[in-house]
Every structure is written in structure tokens, then in C-alpha cells.
Amino acid sequence: MINGPNLNLLGVRKPEIYGHTTLADIEAALRAQAAKLGYKMSFMQSNHEGDLIDAIQAARTASAGIIINPAAYTHTSVALHDALESAELPVVEVHLSNVHKREPFRHHSYISPQATAVIAGAGAQGYELALAFLARHLG
Q1: Which helix (H) or strand (E) holds 118?
Q2: Is residue 95 among the annotated active site residues?
Q3: How many beta carbons lie within 10 A of that of residue 28, not counting itself?
Q4: Res. 86 pLDDT band, cuts 50 70 90
Q5: How far is CA 109 from the centre of its chain?
Q6: Predicted model pTM
Q7: Which one of 2, 37, 41, 97 is at 20 to 30 Å from 69 when CA atoms are compared?
Q8: Residue 19 has pLDDT above 90, yes or no
């Protein structure tokens, strides 16, 4: 699971939009869910685009799939798009809020064309839905 800028502030930053659940809470829930499904998960968050690209490239040979919330980079990063394309893995793009109900600049995603599925607006539960989808997709 790869998380982009400002997601380290979940639970504190704009809880009316992003909720009160912290990133640590989400990771704990996903670790438990992954174990029940027979998977291990790795987690990373960075406010730096290059670190996210490095994580995607590492996942290419170390992971069966990627769950990513690129946060603001969703709308700006061709580099993340290209890294996900090169990874050749199933990708689930997650957004806590419904980006389509927000500012117009948030309506475009450079990530979605590389995603197997996109989950937006389900809050922290979106990550759990992403993991369930990815596990079923992987068979």
C-alpha cells in the first residue's frame, strides 16, 4: 500500500473531508484483513514523488499488486502514471473523499488509466474494499 502527500496527517487534517481515522489505524486494519486472506502487506507513505516512484518500482518484483492513494499527485503526476505502467501489476487507486464532488481540478486522474479499479468516497473503508477486490482479482 502506497500513500502520497499529507496522508500522514489523516485524522488531523480536514477530518470533515478525510475522517478521523489515522493512517496507522488503516494499516492495522489492513494487516489483519490481509492475514485473514493469506497475504502480507507492506506500507509506505511519503510526501515526495520520487519516493513513491521508488516504491512502485520495488513493488514490480516484490508484490502481487498495488493499492495506492497518490493524494494530490493523482492530478499532477505523469511520472507516477509511467511508474505504474512499468510495474505491470494490478493497481487499485483509492481516494478517501469522492474527488468528483470536489473542486474541478480533482476530477482528472493521471493514475486511473493504469488502475484495474478505482475506489473513491468510501472513507477509510475504501482501503479495505481495495484489498478485498485485489485479493479476489489475484485469485
Answers
A1: strand 117-120
A2: yes
A3: 11
A4: very high
A5: 13
A6: 0.93
A7: 37
A8: no
